[in-house]
Amino acid sequence: MLTQWDPFSEISRLQNDFFRRNRQDAGFRPAVDIYQDDKGIHVRADVAGVSPEDIKVEVENRVLTISGERKLEKTSDEGGYHRVERQYGSFSRSFALAEDVDPESIKADYRNGVLNVLLPKSEVKARKQIAVNG
């Protein structure tokens, strides 16, 4: 028995293959907002769907690195229709720290899918003038 070619099914299949390939190539890259107030510099990353246990916040050589992984949720294919558009996979974002950030006082918390990292500023030391002997 011959089956009739359905152009809409073929287009849907091609779109799904295209988006699946591009999503895997692009990976997951959370959006980040950075702002400053009297408490210090705030870094806010949208990491919805990532559990706090899968997030690492590290400082090395005055570079803040936020990394982790959003894992693909297992879903059922029972309905015959399955589409995944959200991005999954490992991510890493790095930011150079300003000289006045105190790396020992950095704090991070996770609430409602948003990672908040506070980079407190250290006390600004007054400029000291040095006499030149001659």
- First CA to last CA: what distance? 104 Å
Total strands: 7
| CATH class value of the domain at 28-71 and 86-122 | Mainly Beta
Structural class by helix and strand composition: alpha+beta
Overall 3D geometry? elongated
Integer-rounded radius of gyration: 24 Å
Strand content: 25-35%
Please state the average pLDDT score: 80
Poorly predicted regions are none
User: In which range does the helix fraction lie?
Assistant: 10-25%
CATH architectural arrangement of the domain at 28-71 and 86-122: Sandwich
Largest sheet: 4 strands, antiparallel
| CATH topology label of the domain at 28-71 and 86-122 | Immunoglobulin-like
Strands ordered across the widest β-sheet: 1-2-7-6
SSE sequence, one letter per element:
HEEEEEEE
The total of helices stands at 1
Give the structure's gist in a few sentences.
It contains 1 helix and 7 strands.
Report on this model:
With 134 residues, the chain is an alpha+beta fold. The protein has a domain at 28-71 and 86-122: Immunoglobulin-like (Sandwich), CATH 2.60.40. Helices cover 15% and strands 34% of the residues. The protein has 1 helix and 7 strands; from the N terminus they run H-E-E-E-E-E-E-E. It has one helix at 7-26, and strands spanning 32-37, 40-46, 55-60, 63-70, 89-96, 107-111, 114-119. The chain has a 4-stranded antiparallel beta sheet, with no helix packed on it. A hairpin with a 2-residue loop joins strand 6 (107-111) and strand 7 (114-119).
